[in-house]
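Weekly puzzle thread! Below is a chain. First person to post its structure in token form gets bragging rights.
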Amino acid sequence: MTDLPKTMKAMVLKGHGDLDAYEWHEDWPVPELSQHEVLIKVGACGLNNTDVNTRTGWYSKAVDQATTGGAYETVDDEDPTWGGRPITFPRIQGADVVGRVVAVGPDTDPSFIGKRVMVDGWLRDWSDPDNKDKTGYYGSECDGGYAEYTKADTRGIMVVNSDLSDAELATFQCSYTTAEGMLSRANVVAGDTVLIPGASGGVGGALIQLAKRRGARTIALASEAKHAEVAALGPDLILPRSPDNLRAALGDEKITVVADVVGGPLWPQLIDVLERGGRYTCSGAIAGPMVELDLRTFYLRDLTFTGSTVIPPHIFPDVVTYIERGELRPMLAATYPLRDLPKAQAAFIDKAHAGNIVVVP
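Winning reply:
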């Protein structure tokens, strides 16, 4: 690292709160490397809901509101992160990193230098990689990519060969691995019909593409202003975001899977439209985490519910392979300079764009 700068520009989260909890620094220390680590010059870093929810403390059981992106009146100190544990501040967030390796740690293969890489959002115990209790998240349990440089374990990165730009590649990691994890948990196969609330978002758009890749039929729910952008992803049917009567809007469609990151007031209707033996899979609740369930619907219809957070280690490499084959389309909605991260996150929260927002150092 002798030829590299000692300090860097970084957007640093100083505590839970509103967007003013971020603090811009131009002299933050460049990360020091340990064994099996590489230093990455960040080309682009995508935004995701985990960053928003961790900043605000939304994951805390003390919060029962929809994701607002603002500070909450009460956040318990013991469970404000995705894993139900405290977070250490200051913290550099940002999980969706794409960049080039510029240095390697002790005893690390120097051939990584110069390679363009994507970082897996999941931090694993590499002696026990399938153990969900031993996982962390990039930009939560360690510093992430909202900076000029970041570091990562070589076992948690993938060299990527693609004509896509860094900003386009930075739209994939969180959204597409989350979506693939959901579809895997629900065992989606050809012949399924998958209902996708929030289809104009990053995960929603990824669900459309990845479910179609499996041969499933897809039905998207999205605000009508974004139907044209959602249509470009190829769903079989697009409906309004929150139909008054979802069953009537679906007509004769038989829904075998609901893949949901929205929750909120529409949730009971999502469950009601599932066919007998149907599967509901969830990886978010941006419209509200508190919902009502009639247990009779659940057991009399033989439904299966699966939560999906920590994904198996193979999913990230699988998604990178799909990217390299040109099987997936990036959903780059907008790019912002890293220093404008608060503005970028405000646009992300307001759902001002369909698709993903990326910051560039």
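Puzzle host: Confirmed. Bonus trivia for everyone else. Residues 172 and 217 are 22 Å apart (CA to CA).
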